[in-house]
Hints:
Blueprint: E1 10-12, E2 15-20, E3 36-41, E4 44-49, E5 54-59, E6 64-68, E7 74-80, E8 85-91, E9 97-101, E10 121-127, E11 133-139, E12 144-148, E13 153-158, E14 161-164
Antiparallel strand pairs: 1-2, 3-4, 5-6, 6-9, 7-8, 7-10, 10-11, 12-13, 13-14
Amino acid sequence: MDYSDAQTVVVADWDPGQTWVQFVVPETFEIQPGQVITLIHSTTTKTHTVTNLTVTDVDPDSDIVVGTADPDGPITVWACDESECVFRYEAADGSGGWIADFGNPGDEPGEDIFDIGPGTSVDAYEHDDDGDATAVQWRVPNHRFNVYVTWNAWRAMIGRRERWSPSPSTTLA
């Protein structure tokens, strides 16, 4: 056994008819394809084998998400911003490659156009036969750069890190 943890299942905030549990795996343990995840509760045991799912590129210019997965498997991809989420049902090809095009309407009802931009969260899911899934999240960076003329200073937001100019006397050119 590579990693073990115990958590308490709770009633879901979004639906009192559902329960859920979340395990936050330490950064020192890396989940890899082929690993078997096992949840045990009393007399019930549930397992899921981690798939080969990846998101390899998110292109805000074309609104296309690209990834790899187990060959010929179904993939669900969600793109979300602060106000909405849009999905795509895709299938990996025989080599495992898949593409989700959010710049054009999809084939299924509800597969609307979505403008991928800074701050967009993309989640991809590869489900097994009994509904368990391997999930991968990708967030499009939302970089900001502000110049404060009054203070003769600059501030950059890179991801979640904030950087200020080295000193208030920095000359901006």
